[in-house]
Amino acid sequence: MDGLKRTPLFPCYGETEGARCIDFGGWELPVQFSGIQAEHEAVRRRAGLFDVSHMGEFLVTGPQAEQFLQRVTVNDVSRLLPGQAQYTLMCYPEGGVVDDLLIYRLGQERFMLVVNASNIGKDFQWLESHLPDAGDAAVPAVELTDCSDATALLALQGPAAARILARVTDAPAGELAAFHFVEEAHVCGVQALISRTGYTGEDGFELYLRAEDAAAVWRGLLAAGKDDGLVPVGLGARDTLRFEARLPLYGQELSREITPLEAGLGIFVKLDKGDFIGREALLKQKEAGLPRKLTGIEMLDRGIPRSHYPVYAGPDGEQIGEVTTGTQSPTLKRNVGLALLKREYSAPDTEVWVEIRGKRLKAQVVKTPFYKRGAAE
Q1: CA–CA separation, 183 vs 106, rounded Å?
Q2: Given this chain, do its domains 10-53+149-244 and 56-146 carry the same CATH topology?
Q3: Nearest to 306 by CA among 263, 262, 355
Q4: Does residue 246 contact residue 338 with C-beta atoms inside 8 Å?
Q5: Three-state SS letters, 279-291
Q6: CA dihedral (325, 311, 101, 196) positive or negative
Q7: Pick from 7, 161, 130, 136: which is nearest to 60 by CA?
Q8: Using CB atoms within 10 A of its CB, is residue 123 exposed (0-12), middle (13-18) or buried (19+)?
Q9: 8 A C-beta contact, residue 252 and residue 49
């Protein structure tokens, strides 16, 4: 795969028999190691280790850093204390999504943003274009730095994650609340930022560290977690895990054409915090009523709903939306999907028809998420 970018952990992939890489948005990344089903089950029942070093990291610093982030994101950055993180989104003036991201408050005037790999260049340009005018100030009000190439990111997820991590760190990571972090920890003898967020529906941690330290930490964690069944996990299971938990993927559940409100992420849109880019459009959409909603669907007829499959009101009815993500749930063994549908067809138990290979097959709207940690299967 000539010309593709590689993470610092690429040399480690071949240490696991069965690893298979694909072109993922210009990156040569593992779609699986031991198999998607086996890796998915390992994360649900034991633990999995993910290389997500292709994600982007930006530093935002300066006396007006908080005000700047308040302006360009939809959540309320002022609520963050140092050591806390939040999920948020950046929107276009029309309300569609530039990207979804995490913001880490490192200090009063220091923040780290974690953005999607496919959007690193676009996001940086978007943020750069909205920086406050420096004027004649000797010290910039806001400085924006792309640290993506220098930063590696590992995700340790699953019920055994805290126990495994405790063996290789001096930090009380197991005491971290959700969306909290410790910046200067040591993992496998190297410095790292440890956070507790996750993208699988399970408990877990993220480790941000220098790119040159990534391989040692990857190998150290796999050794520390061997007796707990820790396995490396690829992109395939990462997608099925986040899908079951109804966690959105940019380019499918979120895009320039889909607003956070339509995607069911209104809890992260703080319309009362003051002005921000996209606020007027989102406020109008909320007041007028959403024209469409992201809903869960389950197939009643035999078939698997896939991304972009059209959804209809009946066997001969009008098109009412399309599938954003769909698969056979590895946990539930049911054919389910997320679909963006006209609002009037979004109530649970509503019958809809999905076109699969030229045939309209019956499905019904169901509640999501499809999987909740701790819920009976």
Answers
A1: 7
A2: no
A3: 355
A4: yes
A5: HHHHHHHHHHCCC
A6: negative
A7: 130
A8: buried
A9: no
The sign of the CA dihedral 111, 139, 122, 211 is negative
How many contiguous H segments (helices) and E segments (strands) does the chain have? 8, 19
Return the residue matching tokens 């990207």.
99
CATH architecture type of domain 291-377: Beta Barrel (2.40)
Closest CA to 331 of 47, 51, 43, 50: 43
Indicate whether this model's pTM tops 0.90: yes
What's the pLDDT tens digit per position in 244-269?
A: 999 999 999 999 999 999 999 999 99
For Cα atoms 6, 58, 111, give the angle at the middle one, nearest 5 degrees: 145
**At a CB cut-off of 8 Å and minimum separation 6, what does 91 contact?**
74, 97, 98, 259, 260, 276, 277, 278, 281, 282
CATH tag, 10-53+149-244? 3.30.1360.120
CB neighbour burial string for 243-260, b if at least 16 within 10 angstroms, e if fewer: bbbbbbbbbbbbbeebbb
Distance CA 265, CA 285 (A): 13
Label residue 135 by pLDDT band (50, 70, 90): low
Return the CATH fold of 56-146. Answer: Alpha-Beta Plaits (3.30.70)
The sheet with strand 110-115 has its strands ordered as 85-91, 97-107, 110-115, 56-61, 143-146
